[in-house]
Amino acid sequence: MPLSENAVEPSTSDGDARVLRFTRAQRAVHWTFAVLAFGCLFTAVALYVGPIATLVGRRALLRSVHLTCGYLMLVPLLLGLLSRAFRADVRRLNRFGPDDTRWLRSQPARRSGRLSVGKFNAGQKVAAAFVLGSGWRSPSASSWWATCGLLCATAMR
């Protein structure tokens, strides 16, 4: 049973209740994608930074690991779409309302808690739109999918 945005975990022994922002499925998507993204990052550095490339060697293996991590990034994203909570978060990132505009324009009020923001503040929504927009400019389909993954990872923050 998926938890809602404002779901509260049962009280602990000291009486504290915690707000759960993400379901287990959402966290699994996030961390699986993060591990694969770092795999792509580290293999890219090892492939394209001269001194590190000579130190590591085995360029063909690194290239295979890099491509495999990149293509596997689709798996957690597609599995995440099976989660109702994950799809709801993607929809939340796509909604930009009057409160979001006020949030962007009034820096002192951001930290005070006077402005109503939902699960994602306007800065997170703008960052997600930027990441998605940079994917559309990308020349290859695989980098577009990686950008979509970064969008979903942003949604999980």
Can you offer a commentary on this structure?
Helices cover 69% and strands 0% of the residues. The chain has nine helices and no strands.
Helix-strand string: HHHHHHHHH
Shape call: elongated
Helix content: 55-70%
Overall radius of gyration = 19 Å
What structural class do the secondary elements suggest? mainly alpha
Uncertain regions spanning at least 5 consecutive residues = 1-12
Report the count of strand segments.
0
Average per-residue pLDDT, rounded, comes to 75
* Distance between the ends: 22 Å
Note the main sheet: none
Question: How much of the sequence is in beta strands?
Answer: under 5%
Quick structural overview:
By secondary structure, this protein is mostly helical. 69% of the residues lie in helices and 0% in strands. It is elongated.
Task: Name the descriptors.
about 160 residues; about 70% helix; 9 helices; disordered N terminus; elongated; mainly alpha; single chain
